[in-house]
Amino acid sequence: MTSGIRFDRERCAAAAEACGCLNIRKASRVVTQLFDEALEPTGLRSTQLAILITVAGHGPASVAKLSRELVMDPSTLARNLQPLVQQGLIEKTPGPTGNRKLISLSEDGTAAVARAIPLWEAAQKRLLQHFGSQRWPMFMSFLSQAVAAGQSARSEAGGAIRPLHPVASA
Q: Nearest 5 degrees, angle CA 30-CA 115-CA 130?
């Protein structure tokens, strides 16, 4: 025992079973693996394709706008953009005022997305076959609600979550 806090194995097991973060991350990992395997012939990872299709869907956009769309920290997105710039898949160009760079797909990026989409579609189809295409729209709605709830909870807590109840000590 350290620092006077009592360890409760049953409480930990219950937390693991009910934890939104843990269970969403587990689902995310296995779905990411499915899509990464499908996209392997393109040399893209699913995380890179997500960025590329977001850029494609929003046209030239700032890192700030893309980070909001992807629900990513702007500095994390900027780091994730670097390999795509180095591979020549996206371009950074000056914005209208010159003080912000706009992100857009290059010709090679457009071609990479065009090659990846059929593989993405096949992986999506497999996922829906196993999940159930009838349940998919409701699941997507729940995911959107989870994103909104997480953003609201973070905002309400000022970015720092405190225990609702005092931690029991020995």
A: 30
